[in-house]
Amino acid sequence: MPNPRDIDLSALKNMPSKTKRQWRFLAETDSTNAEIARMLADHPPEQGLIVLADSQTDGKGRLGRTWHSAPGTGVYISTLIRPNLPPEQLPILTLMAGLATVIAVNEFTSNRAQLKWPNDLLLNEKKIAGILCEYYPKNIPAVIIGIGINVNQTQFPTNIKEIATSLKLETGKEINRTALIKQLITQLDFQYSELKKYKVETLIKNWTRHTDLFGKTITLKKSSQSITGKAIGLDNLGRLIITNESGEETALDSGEVRLG
Ligand code: BTN
After folding, report:
1. How high is the pLDDT of residue 160?
2. Domain boundaries in the chain?
3. CA angle 205, 63, 28 (to 5 degrees)
4. The pLDDT of residue 3
């Protein structure tokens, strides 16, 4: 890609890694997740793959939304993994990627970013990053982990400007994207290898340290339904557990959380 000043491609390519992996840098693409999906059939299964773009024309968010991906400002990155997990445990990977992202982002801000189940990162109550994991079960099952981080944006389109923020807006400082991507990839490698070594409980415990959701009353919207209760934790499948007034627990596997 035409090298934006703060992206040092060779420093990223030379990052130490236990597994061999290919890096692909693009000035512009539709979506880094879609780029990996197109490469999937021909990519050697034993090799890792990371796609980084300076901008996306069709950045994908969860629930069919778009991810604002202007050039020169954000981190738009996807990585390919071939997890050995049963399909019902795959949501754990979104939590794993969220944990890696929050730890990386918090290296650059003194106010702590918080995880919002299942895939959001909020800083000062506005969205600063999001995760989109996509599962491709054909042949050798693959998961594409897509991460978008708002880094040096100083403005957002009208439709999201009340709910989105960036590291620069919150800290007042220009952030070097290479430094942030290095932290992110280091954390992703680390959290994924921890997940393979230890029990899911360890990941859930660490994820819980980075959220302020538990103990609060939330409403979860899923299609046309909504359910309200107090969020009390996550179970070992990464589902959100809420209780109602009579203390009955419900485990929720997807949807959109609103406070109150
Ligand atoms: C969300 O919060 O809804 C998830 C947003 C995920 C955005 C990232 S940007 C890199 C990767 N490529 C995409 O098209 N989407 C993800």
Report:
1. 96
2. 9-208, 217-259
3. 100
4. 57
Residues of the chain with pLDDT under 50: 2
Fold of 9-208: BirA Bifunctional Protein; domain 2 (3.30.930)
Instruction: Using most ligand atoms within 8 A of CB, pick from 67, 101, 121 the residue to mutate for ligand 1.
Output: 67
Whether ligand 1 lies within 6 angstroms of the CB of 37 is answered as no
Distant-in-sequence, close-in-space partners of 143: CB < 8 Å, separation ≥ 6: 80, 81, 82, 83, 90, 93, 133, 134, 135, 136
| Apex 26 CA angle, 132 and 75, nearest 5 | 45
Tokens of 257: 């959380």
Pick from 127, 147, 151 the residue to mutate for probing ligand 1's pocket: most ligand atoms within 8 Å of its CB: 147
Structure tokens at 88: 């019902």
Give the pLDDT of residue 138: 87
Domains 9-208 and 217-259 share a fold: no
Q: In the prediction, which pLDDT does 1 show?
A: 53
**Of 225, 230, 226, which is closest to residue 248 (Cα–Cα)?**
230
Instruction: Provide CATH code, domain 217-259.
Output: 2.30.30.100
Task: Tell me how far the alpha carbon of residue 132 lies from the centroid of ligand 1, in angstroms.
Answer: 5
CB-ligand 1 contact for 74 (6 Å cutoff): no
Nearest to 25 by CA among 131, 153, 181: 181
DSSP code of residue 19: S
